[in-house]
User: Fold these one by one.
Assistant:
Number 1:
Amino acid sequence: MKPFFDEFYEKYHRDLFQFIYYMVKNRSAAEDLTQEVYIKVLQSYQSFDGRSSEKTWLFSIARHVTIDYFRKQGRKRKKIMDFFNWEEKGESIKDEEALPDEVAELNDRMREVYEALDQCTVDQKSVIILRYIQSMTIQETAAILQFTESKVKTTQHRGMLALKKRLGVKGDSEHEA
Amino acid sequence: MKHNDEQDSRIEKMLHELPQIKDTKSKDDYYRLITNDSNQNSSGRPRWLFPGIASVIAVLILAVVVPFSYYSVKEGAIDQPQSAEQHNFKLEKSKSFSSGNDLSLKTNQESTAHELQSMVVEDISSNMKPLAAVDQSVQHIVPLTVVSEKNEREGSNINTEQLGLSENILENITISIDENEDKAQVTFPNNFSVSGNAMSTSIVNSIKWSVEPYNVEEISIQTEDGSQVSLGSYGKLSSLSVIEEGSFIFKVFKPSSSDTSFFVPVSIKNESTISTALKELKKDEKDPKVDSPLPPEVTVQSAHEEGNELIVELNHPESVDKQKMLTAIESILMTAQHFGYDRVEFENTSIGKLGPYELSKTVETPKGLNPVPAEE
């Protein structure tokens, strides 16, 4: 198992961790989820049928693991909310983790971009991270997310609109000719 | 467009320059942790043992308790789960039509009193054509889905005046969709002219809502000879922006000259969350008049997302008229769809089956609004 893990780690770890980190924006959670991805990969590698690339398969697992994480977080928050009866604040409660040094050192505008990612839905965020932070092609992104290429484009467009709105950038105008 | 492209490029560049976040665990740490985890899981009792026993006990308790529970509901009120099968609605998700027309919902003879009007379509299939009309006072845009009995999209016409709406203002305008490129091409007659702000706004918004179900990214407009289109106060245009996600909710409009009700989009403030949007559904609007789709008995307690799924907690509504409950559920589904959610799970409903929906399970969000039959 060790040689197999070594190979996966060397080839994909950096990208895998970045994807998970930018999805959840919590270093410790990202490390736990990365570990979970490796466990799933090692458990199911025998059944990997090679119909998709290794990288696509790995990132699909990573995406499902992060969605499960959000689902569990949602339930946990809901229980807390029910207990305190804070009906209104369901969506605004966030994990208050301090910004990592790498982000804290950025200029204001870059920090705003980092924070604006939270305005995107999970799908939009996945597409934006894969396309722009990890420079994947539309085809690769579609394969990982199991979207059509058309859905990737639409989700990307809507994600960019959400980012622009948060950044206070004026959007498309009817008056363009 | 150039300005927007530059903005996009700037944001793309900044995203690309976001830093690599350092991982505090080393390769050896990960290997040790994953092998420890694998060893723990492979020893001792199987992981499924306790959940399995708990599930069996829960099923046994339900089997004993459920037959003794009985809800008596008043005539026409929502079914509780135990009685959901009794009414046997024949409403099909993809073949649902507004009442008051030839293709109204069919129920079996015992339940004719329960004819339900569905105001959404699950998906835009090949015999459906999205379109948008305006009401007679040119105050509301009414998105429609024209459904042809023949399996064809083109040539599907409707008489909007029979539906209590204004004449079709897009009648001489051709809309074609390039689904591969996510583009809509709208062609106006060469001699096209429009007067008045209200009419030019209605035309622009009708076009946007006509192409919205296709998720296009661009709407190009031109006349037959390829010129820009003069649209009143908008000036000369060659493109329109698409409807922005999360900027509308859907309330009920009933034309005075028709028995048919329609969902119409009502603009909400920018930056609204899905929770605030669902709360807004509760309000009637006076000017222009539209009704809340949620009856007084139904309140959205909370909403939160889990991935692409929206979890909506209701207030255990009971004794609600089925039609009103169906409209409430569909308005929530459509609003969720507009905010980008693929599915909705309803909590605290106590309702089993309602029209085409099994509310004890996750429900897919619909893609089209206000189905109306084509004139064949």
Number 2:
Amino acid sequence: MRYVLYGVVVALLALRLWRHRRARALAADAPEPGGAVRPGRLGATLDKLGGDIGLVARREVRERVRGRTFRVGTAVILLAVAAAVTIPVLRKGGESHQRVGIVGTLSGPLRASIVATGPALGTKITLVSEASLATATRALTAGRLDVVLVGTHRIVVDQSLDPTDTSTTALLARTISASVSLQAGLEHAGIPPANALRLANPPPLPVQSLKPPRHDQTARTTAVYGLILTYVLLTQFGTWLLMGVVEEKSSRVIEVLLSTLRAAQLLAGKVIGIGAVALLQAALIVAVALGLGAAEGSTLIHGTSSLEIVSSLLWVVLGYAFYCWVFAAGGSLADRQEQVQSLAFPLQLPILFGYIVSFTALGSGQPSELVKVLAYVPPTAPFAMPVLVGLGDVSWWQFALSVVLMLVATVAVARLASVVYRRAILRTGGRVHLRQLFARAA
Amino acid sequence: MLELEGLTRHFGDVVALDGLSFTVPTGQVFGFLGPNGAGKTTAMRAVFDLVALDSGVVRWKGVPVTSKGRRHFGYMPEERGLYPGMVIVEQIQYLAQLHGVAAGDARTAAMQWLEKLGVADRATSKLEALSLGNQQRVQLAAALVHQPELLVLDEPLSGLDPVGVDAISAVLVEEAAAGRGVLFSSHQIDLVEDLCQSVAIIDHGRLVAAGTVEELTTSGKRRLVVKVDGDFAGAWARQLPGVTISRVEGGAVRLVLDEDTDPQAVLAAAMTAGPVEQFGFERQRLSEVFREALV
């Protein structure tokens, strides 16, 4: 819990610092006419993008990054990430130490054999001598002990053990149950304790495999986090884009803008600007996750190949590139801010569908046929393909094929969306329906 | 010089523009008049390519207007529009930059215009925090900030109090005096009579009258204003041949005389009705020109 608290404190401090700096920047910016606006570093980079598109993109970045939605949203996401990375480490820390209460006396070799099971279970075992069963039970209830061994004939645990329970405590209880019983039996039969110890704890046979493991847990976990990141970023920034377009249309500033800009320039600037903010946020999240993970030795991150992370980020970018046009075109159909929700929902459906199906496949550990197909369907590929990567179920050319299909589809969607946007953005007086747009063209 | 030539646009069965042509000279304030729905807004949007024309062409300095040329125009749309949640000086600066002004100059110009229009103290507020009248001033600053060669303002005076009308009128006159083109639309005819040198009057998407205010108001039928003591309703004039009462104002009747009506006969008729307190010719009001043009 300690680390989560640290995380909260750091995030809040960062937020305070940010607000302070922004207030100072605004104050310095405001009074003197002729003082040039200080562009942010991202803004300066976008400036080099050149011309009107760069100007539009820069405004988007500045306004979004300043907005409370972005700052609070980023802080919340970062806290969630910090918690996701930290909590398993802490829990593992708790479980990595098992305390076994001993009621009665136990021979040296038996004690040694119990302690010796630790490494195989990935835990450290401490033996605690208890005066009576009653005190041992109390300690067990209070959580000071994990397992209690009563003589060599009984094991007591706090919670009844399910046969499928794979927690360290359950594994330990089962192992001790078998080995102590066997060893005690052998000793009882007159075999010297040292020999009984060896007999009851034989060295395990090495297991040789013909093929490498089908998929490893870490890659799968990376895919889970990739999926969540993709889902959050696509829905969040898609909706932002939609709202940004609706804002310009409903406030009628669009007429002023289009009196000097072409619709395609405005659209491109918005898409790039909001995309840059999305990428910034994604990079921040990944950096925090990797940084925290490395610092705390979390297994969630440890051992993840950079290839998997790059693949996840690539699909975030590709997903945004595809969906940004859809959402922008959707926004141009609205007439008032209130229509944002009703327009965003249908556009989010394929995202939600891809997300749920892919998540289910990851959970089961086996990619379904559906996921294998969806990995090549552009609207769902940003979810399904990283899952196939995480499950180690895809070759490089399949991956490349999916990327190419995605790029082609993105170009097509961008063109169509530009047409819709251009035709709908200046139409006011009620929601525009696609039928109206294309009926006029015909 | 801005030339609109043969602008035609249909929206379904509705004819918004029907071969509309007229010319806006630079260096003077040009009023664009017409009843609601006459096509003024559509014509102005056509200048900025915000509406696709069925046919017709818009020229500036003799050349068809391009998107590059439009950067030197300033536009104030009928439905005001700026970013409600954006800091005022920043959005004016942004719009200046979109018109090709360098960042630093854009900031200076933005502050200067806000100063001139009396909203400089709100420069760092968000637009939505301002009253509608002040928002309109900011909107005008947005149209002017890049020193446009041509200003196209759709109903710039509507919804303003007299102080606001004066402030914005003064700016329009100043801009015209500096040699720029100033085209502005209005349906409040009396308000623009003193403001513009020339007007174009349109109805149903077609030009019905155009020229200098001087020409339009001095041509046409003669107008007499006569006041007879004791006859505030102007009953004496109702039966006169060759005379139409255009309006009765403060006991004085405003009469429109036919070509062959003798003013002396009218005076004689007035004198029989009672003591004549006022008798004289007056030029037409622009609103009368407007009404007659629309008949």
Number 3:
Amino acid sequence: MSAPGYPWAGHASARSRLLEAAIATVSALGYEIVTVEMIVDVAGVGEGDFERSFADKDECCRRAFEDVCDHFDRHLLPVYARTAPAPAKIRAAAYACADYCREYQQRARYGLQVRSRYGRTSRAEQSLKFHLGQMDSLRDEDTAHRIPAAAAELSVGFFAGHAIRLDASGRLGELRASIPSLLYSVYNVYLGRSAAERLLQDEEIRGSQQLPNRSI
Amino acid sequence: MEHLTAAAEIGVGSFYSLCSGKEDCLLALYDDAVSEARSAIASAVGERAESSWPEQTCVGLRVLLDWVAEQPLQARIVFIEIQTAGGEALRRYTATLDSAAEFLALGRKIAQPSSRRLPESLEQTTVSGIAWLLHRYLSLGKAASAPELFEDLAELVLEPYLGEDQAREAVSQVLLAPPR
């Protein structure tokens, strides 16, 4: 890998290039294999630039993970911010998440790969709590008694866990095809089996007519 | 590597006579831990070989959650560390989840007629979600609380096949049954 082939070469600051290079190399080769020299080489900057920006590989990769969290949250924020019933918002967010995994596959892969290493940092926790809170907007006062306390974590887990499986077989970009099934499980947790079955029927009708809209 | 050999109180040469590297060592640990968890589940389910799929599912889930609480270090290997160790590790991890999903898919045979609309990948989604939740509990140092998830998780696993009332009934029977 060399810098000229990468889109950030010659444009971004040295720090930004190093973060992008960390995402590119780790998502392609895995954290353990990647060295500071590889990151510096792919970023097309000098070793001095790395030393001025980060203490070591660990700090560089942690910052890159935080950058991915920011980027992903910004991608979903407009969907969450819309005025719509919670189920419609979560559905739109699910498709936006799948689109993110297809359009920013390196970033998504990176996030999934280093999540176990950096998932407890304050920025990562903040990001996760943000999405858990949005998921919990599905809680209905009338059915609250039957909704498990860990419903949001389990529901986010349906998506994250499935994305990990797809990534393991190089099919992360295909997450969109699994959204009806993932939403079925989420609706089953929050709204019950009947609502989940109705959703699946609706998604099949939508799917037979056209690809689901990216907006609500 | 230094940490590993120091903790095991062996030399680097001895380490390499046992494992080809750090990844190989982690894979061996993973296989051992999965084998132990599987044995515990198979033993408990085997004692109820004549019982129904819902009961076997509940028993298996209960044993898994108890195992996470009792063996948090091994559970960390199974649900957390394996995901950091590259392609072969991820392949083994997903193969483990797939075998659990295959067992859950047996529920389709006894599903209520109204459950014909089950999504094709329901079982994979269910298993992935539970694995992610256990990853989270272990990351937060809450492994000891994992058994508290049993009732909610068991009902959620069974509900798509049995409906809410029958799922609750099946879980209640396992909760009330004396340990064998």
Number 4:
Amino acid sequence: MAFAAFGHSGGSKSDFKTPRKTSVKVAMALLIPGMLYLGLFFITPLVSLVVTSLEVPDGSGEIGRYDYGFEIANYWAVIETYWPHIARSFFYALTATILGLLISYPLAYFIGVKARRWPILQGLMLTLVIAPFFISFLLRTFAWKQMFANESLIVTTLQSWGVLAPDQYLVGTDFMVIFGLTYNFIPFMTLPLYTSLERLDIRLLEAGSDLYASPAKVFGRVTLPLSMPGIISGTLMTFIPIAGDYVNASSQFLGSSETAMIGNVVEANFLRINDYPSASALSVLLMAAILALVTFYVRRSGTEDLL
Amino acid sequence: MATEFVARGSNLDLVGIRKEFPGFTAIDDLDLHIPAGEFFALLGPSGCGKTTTLRLVAGLEEPTSGQILIGGKDVSHTKPHERPVNTVFQSYALFPHMSVLENVAFGLKQRKIADPLKRASEALDLVQLGHLAGRRPQQLSGGQQQRVALARALVNRPSLLLLDEPLGALDLKLRREMQIELKAIQIEVGLTFLHVTHDQEEAMDMADTVAVMNKGRIEQMGAPEKLYDRPKTVFVSKFLGQSNLFIGKIVETSANSLSIDVAGYKISVPKDRAEKHTGKIAIGVRPEKADLFQTKPADSSSENLIGPGEVKDIRFTGVSNQFLVDVPNIGLVTVFEQNEGNSTVELGDQVWISWKVEHSFGLADLPADTLDEE
């Protein structure tokens, strides 16, 4: 290789340039599989989705037959029809994310900071956080449905205590869906929080208390800002998938028709009603809304230099 | 408890402090009094308990028993943020998510003192870093970070400033510069400084009082010149500078001096410079107090004389030449000669070593390896 590089030109200028060009070419060549993958499995479906969302019925009156068109009104129609589902999705996602954060932060803090002195305990607790992944999440969600079923011990006990009315049940309620969403996404919140808290320098906390900050102030002024990268990635990794989730809220699992989220509506429109334009328009809307929210969130949190 | 913005330092008193960690005792019955406005150095090897002492004063550790008084007030069981004390940490511990100015203003803001940013930038000017106020700590050099840490502590005008080997991470030249600067600042602000270090030169250079600590106890305490001139234990004589020690039974006692016999040589020490007057004693002399002679000098009652011995090693350090002389039946003796450009002693030469009796010092204990010979 070296001989070839020297061989075909005498000038030092091209000697310098040749390997550079080659490395650019190599980089491009290495990028091709990734680009192809993205083009094939991300860009193409995305374009197809947008195109479908603008289609119009073909006039034959048969269900599921559509022609290409530019029907922006599809969007207004789905917003009008499904705005409660859209609102509910974001409400569930927000609530489950906040609950997940409140549960995961102390957990991650304990594993990443307090348990540093006992590496075995640390490893064990991390394993326990990940352990649920060893079982399919459909099964786990279904197990929760069994546990909170109408005739279950939990429900009958709550009814006998008067917490629930005799004809009141848990499955199919907002509570149950948020419970399931929170539960299923806690590991995705805990792990990023753990990675950022695990690096937290205890000496900075000591410096904070040395500089007259009470433990609460030290948490607010030092620990919390320093774990911001973990909070941001944890909340994004839970909020985004929760907003599009359709398992927990479906009536086959923890929800009912009263708890349907966008995901359930999209599923119904695509697979049962065969209203492809509406399903596509909802998908595009969901994506755009998440993108806008996330951009706003990351900008606002101002953690660019910590990320 | 609100901590007032003091203009002057306070006394620090440690009374019977004991600190046990699982498996070992870090500090064993420590009593210490540091007067207000003093620059006090706690000197000792790593693991001697000096950093633990500092952390106890800062409130980052709780004593197993004993009392800590700052300005006469018992703070033994108050939380770190309630103590009128600030620390310059060894690692600096600057907040990476704040600018240099915000770091310095942190303590002022916590205590809700007016104009925190103005005071903080004044403190930065004091350490000559005013122009870097907007930077993040990670963007500064080690020496600059150290000065930010100092400003962040000083700006609070603590009754007591604790320095935990703050110069340890700096290179030699910068360290010497910072020593001078630190001492100047201490004189200017008039606060009480408690400085922990394992660098004996640093301690002697800056401190009004040095306490040499070993195995959780203070071995000896005093002005640097006094400590150096009259160490009282083997540990102090070796840790604070270098010493040649000669061990032997006291064979002769006169009105104001006593002598031991070491391999046939008579080595004397003034009585008032000896810690004990009977039995076996270690007599020491500093290497720079001893002189080398290429011909045997005349015996004199005011001089100790040993030799001849062979020069085994000569080290040139610039300001001085350091000779290692092997005296038969005594062992290696170190002698420092000022580099005046007229040394003719060479490796392998036979030389005599002599020093004034009044430069000897008699120690209270014996080196550990000689004890079993008795």
